[in-house]
Amino acid sequence: MKKLLSVCLTTCVLVFSSASVQAKGDQIQLRDGHPEEYVVVKGDTLWDISGRFLKKPWRWPEIWDVNKQIDDPHWIYPGDVLYLTWVDGKPKLRKKGNDRLQPRARVSKIESAIPAIPLKDLHSFLSDNAVLDDELLKTTPYVVGGRNERIIAGAGDRIYARGELDTSVKTQNIYRPAKEYVDKDTGELLGYEMHKVAETRVISTKEDVISLDVLKTREEVRVLDRVLPSPEGRVQSVFNPAPAPEFSEGYIMSVLRGVNKIGRFDAVAINQGYREGVQAGHVYKIFKRGESLKDPITKETIELPSEEAGTLMVFKAYERVSYGLVMTATNVMSVGDKVRSPDAQE
User: Fold this and answer.
1) Within 10 Å of residue 201's Cβ, how many Cβ atoms?
2) Phi, psi (5° rounding) for residue 62?
3) What is the model's pTM?
4) Which of 41, 138, 189, 334 shows its CA 20 to 30 Å from the CA of 161?
5) Residue ranges of the domains in the chain?
């Protein structure tokens, strides 16, 4: 009986110790040399600030102490003073002057809040690119021609399109399908990458025929080009870095600057979207594919293991595809490299 009790106690101690180690591993890890206080400056991003305090910047939601009693609890502005404190043994980051007992509202516009990621080049990128799935492409208005039966039009020309359109939106962009996104593993058609070729203004509609004047062009407008509303002029930037869904795993389908190698601040497309629970702010680790080598003795071809090479943050999600910005890079990456949640089991 004593021997059995001893075994049980030993087992309990081992289980408790294992749980303690696991719990310790799940604790937020502060960056070595982190500041106790930081004054936000213009040009900062949420990713930058999170990286000043955390070893894993995507764990920002766990450290940011939101004051729900103010109008814009998630927004941070240049000039805000952030300080590190401890609540129930856990690190928390707060704004000075925003104590829960003395809440104060800020009179400001969202445009002045710091973004989650660097927005340089992304404004024009999201205006120039879009992703439509097959069903949406079929229902989007399309160009049927121009005056005098012309099939090509430029700035200053009148063109005609057919389909249902929100006539309250007077400015419409013309897009052309540029690339099919097909999942290399399943063969599923995930969507079409669309490139903007022109800007137009709606002049009139008659039943399902739309008259538009071409204002600006990058390329000639052609029959079957698609008509889409101009996107919001500002990239949605008020979102928090957070790990992608634990079981979300995919790969980089393309790099959006047309280069072969991928590095920091390159925009990429991945084969994960709303369907997989992905949204703006979600962070993935990027794993560079292992190279193929020939064994010098057996002459067999062997595949080297993949290695972690960087991180990306999603800034625009669609149904089955998302655009992400590479935030860190420890190695050169390429199309086809894997992405998976930082919370995924190794």
Assistant:
1) 12
2) -80, -20
3) 0.81
4) 189
5) 37-109, 123-229, 242-340
**Conformational region of residue 45, where left means phi above 0, alpha means psi within -120 to 50, and beta covers everything else:** beta
Class of domain 242-340: mainly beta
CA neighbor of 324 nearest in space, from 312, 334, 332? 312
49 secondary structure, DSSP code: H
User: Which helix (H) or strand (E) covers residue 138, if one does?
Assistant: helix 134-139
The predicted-structure confidence for 87-101, as pLDDT tens digits, reads as follows 998 999 988 865 433
Beta-bridge partner residues of 152: 222
Q: CA–CA separation, 284 vs 247, rounded Å?
A: 11
Distance, in Å, from the CA atom of 202 to the CA atom of 170, rounded to the nearest integer, reads: 5
Token pair belonging to 116: 């989650």
What is the C-alpha separation between 77 and 109, in angstroms, rounded?
10
- Per residue in 284-317, pLDDT (tens digit) is 999 998 888 888 899 899 988 889 999 999 999 9
Contacts of 298 (CB under 8 A, 6+ apart): none
Helix (H, G, I), strand (E, B) or coil at 56: coil
Q: Which residue reads 């952030």 in tokens?
A: 82
Which residues are paired to 193 by β-bridges?
Answer: 131, 179
**Residue 214: partners with Cβ closer than 8 Å, 6 or more residues away:** 153, 154, 155, 156, 157, 158, 159, 174, 198, 199, 200, 221
User: Phi first, then psi: what are they for 18, rounded to 5°?
Assistant: -65, -40
Tell me the C-alpha distance between 164 and 142, whole Å: 10
